[in-house]
Amino acid sequence: MSDCLFCRIISGEIPADKVYEDAQVVAFRDVNPQAPVHILVIPRRHLSSLNAAEEADGELLANLLLRAAEIARTEGLAATGYRLVANVGADAGESVPHLHFHILGGRPLAWPPG
Q1: Exposed, middle or buried: residue 55 (CB in 10 Å: 0-12, 13-18, 19+)?
Q2: Which positions are annotated as active-site residues?
Q3: Beta 18-21 vs 37-43: how paired, if at all?
Q4: Mind listing the pLDDT tens digit for each residue in 59-91?
Q5: What single DSSP character describes residue 17?
Q6: SS3 per-residue string spanning 78-111
Q7: What is the rounded distance in angstroms from the CA atom of residue 54 to the CA atom of residue 83?
Q8: Which residues are CB-neighbours of 42 under 8 A, at least 6 positions away?
Q9: pTM attached to this predicted model
C-alpha cells in the first residue's frame, strides 16, 4: 500500500534503522522510543491489524513472534525481560494501520501499562 508508512519503510522509500529482515519479516528501531530498546517487528505483506488476520496467516504470525524472541535475545533482553505489545485499534493506541509488534526493554517496565 503506497500510503502505508510501514510499507514505505519496507520498500526502502523511507529510511529506517533495520535490525532484522527476511522474506516475511522486517524489524527496525522505533523513531520515538518508549524504552531504551524499542523495536517494531512487522510483516512484509500488508496486514492492517491483528483483527484482519485469518487462519491462513498462522504461519506468518508464528514467524513474527519467533523473530521477536530472537531479536530480544540478540538485543540482550532475554535474561532480564522485555515486553511484546500489539496495539489493536485506536483505543489501544494503534497509530499505523499495519500489523506490528513492539519489543520494549532495557529497563524495568511498569504494570499496568495504560
Answers
A1: exposed
A2: 100
A3: unpaired
A4: 999 999 999 999 999 999 999 999 999 999 999
A5: -
A6: CCCCEEEECCCCHHHCCCCCCCCEEEEECCCCCC
A7: 24
A8: 6, 10, 25, 26, 27, 64, 98, 99, 100, 101
A9: 0.94
